[in-house]
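Quick one, probably user error.
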């Protein structure tokens, strides 16, 4: 790993390095030159410094002994006595990975009075649950939880760590990765493992145009976050054999700069990720008022309306309704897409749906490549007909 080191005794603050940096990564603060994370190590500053005050130091990369890191550790997010469902999806993936490299599966659970939760976890193919309990850990505080996570990793030395890409997971995982100066891949859509225990972390990149395969070959642990509903939940183990290890929480791990004054539960409609039926509207919809048509169909089928990104960008619907790479991942039993072309960024968020019915007037629309049923037609003709048909059938059957 290379590093640029400024010799402040030699630097006369001429500012030449600031001018030559093509990445705007150098600035002057408090009478000192600073190099930010935007630096790409092009060395132009070092070469152009008249005082030779910037040294490029090429440190030899330290390579970790992979044999010393064993196990797949799943972070168990829990709130008010409920384990987040992404946990069981992560255990499912951990199980697949563990089988191919013959590693154990561990869970880490942090909180207060949560020991009963470990019984739920032990029904699954988990070898050991590491339990950290303390009243100070009742609510998530990123600094204390990072300390505890670090403690667990130093004890267990897991090769792979899986964390849900929830609000908490997204805040916690990068901090943990930074403590170990190791890699983290966010929002993985698929995970594979090589014989040498390198985790192949697959996720869309460059706006969804490529599926990047990311590995962490020089450091351990390897950390990946995965969104809820991307992986399949695991089944309970036939012969659960796991154990609980209660871990000691030292007082200094609980030092926090965060004070929690009040915890309030936000009233929310079920998220589009949690419903079984979705009617997804796209740019084929001509105006905001027309959305009521698709909302009516959604209500009739006991589902919710969701949309593509352009409708969110036009301000027609709230972001929480957006499906896709930069929106929510959904896996409903039924999704009917109306006037949606099927761009990769949209498909990335819904391709695992159980039944996809696509309505589009363009027979060459990419969405038809993934739909289970294709309706080639105008949404303004097909959807009203569908609504009428459902209502008639219900009237006839007295529903
Ligand atoms: C980094 C990045 C992230 C992105 N993230 C997301 C994301 O999370 N979610 C997302 O959705 N997009 C995302 N996008 C945008 C994405 O690339 C597409 O632009 C978007 O999904 C297109 O939405 P659409 O299918 O509604 O519109 P269009 O692609 O314009 O398709 C409209 C479709 O409607 C059909 N149509 C028109 N009129 C009718 C009619 N009367 N009856 C039937 N069919 C009709 C047309 O034939 C067409 O196929 C992202 C893009 C980038 C670069």
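Nope, works fine. Designed sequence:
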């Amino acid at each position: 790993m290379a590093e640029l080191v400024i010799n402040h005794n030699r630097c006369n603050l001429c500012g030449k390095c600031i001018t030559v940096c093509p990445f705007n990564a150098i600035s002057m603060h408090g009478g000192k030159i600073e190099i930010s994370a935007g630096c790409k190590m092009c060395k132009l500053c070092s070469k152009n410094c008249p005082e030779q005050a910037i040294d490029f130091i090429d440190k030899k990369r330290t390579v970790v002994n992979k044999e010393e890191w064993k196990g797949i550790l799943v972070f168990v997010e829990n709130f008010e006595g409920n384990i987040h469902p992404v946990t069981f999806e992560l255990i499912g993936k951990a199980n697949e990975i563990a089988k191919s490299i013959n590693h154990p599966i561990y869970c880490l659970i942090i909180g207060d009075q949560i020991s009963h939760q470990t019984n739920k976890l032990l029904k699954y193919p988990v070898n050991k649950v590491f339990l950290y309990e303390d009243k100070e850990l009742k609510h998530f505080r990123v600094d204390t939880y990072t300390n505890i996570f670090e403690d667990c990793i130093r004890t267990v030395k897991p090769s792979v760590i899986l964390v849900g890409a929830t609000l908490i997971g997204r805040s916690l995982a990068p901090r943990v990765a930074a403590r170990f100066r190791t890699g983290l891949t966010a929002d993985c859509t698929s995970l594979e493992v090589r014989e040498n225990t390198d985790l192949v972390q697959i996720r869309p990149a460059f706006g969804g145009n490529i599926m990047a395969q990311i590995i962490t070959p020089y450091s351990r642990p390897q950390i990946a976050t995965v969104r809820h509903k991307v992986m399949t939940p695991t089944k309970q183990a036939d012969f659960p054999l796991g154990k609980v290890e209660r871990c000691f929480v030292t007082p200094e791990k609980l030092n926090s700069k965060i004070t929690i004054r009040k915890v309030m539960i936000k009233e929310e409609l079920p998220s589009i990720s949690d419903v079984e039926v979705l009617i997804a509207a796209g740019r084929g919809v001509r105006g905001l008022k027309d959305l009521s048509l698709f909302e009516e169909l959604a209500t009739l089928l006991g589902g919710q309306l969701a949309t593509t990104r352009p409708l969110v960008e036009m301000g027609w619907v709230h972001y929480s309704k957006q499906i896709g790479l930069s929106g929510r991942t959904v896996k409903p039993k039924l999704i009917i897409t109306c006037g949606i072309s099927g761009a990769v960024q949209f498909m990335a968020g819904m391709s695992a749906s159980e039944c996809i019915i696509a309505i589009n007037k363009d027979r060459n629309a990419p969405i038809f490549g993934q739909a289970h049923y294709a309706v080639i037609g105008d949404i303004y003709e097909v959807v009203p007909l569908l609504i009428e048909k459902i209502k008639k059938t219900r009237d006839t059957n007295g529903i």
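The chain has a mean pLDDT of 94.
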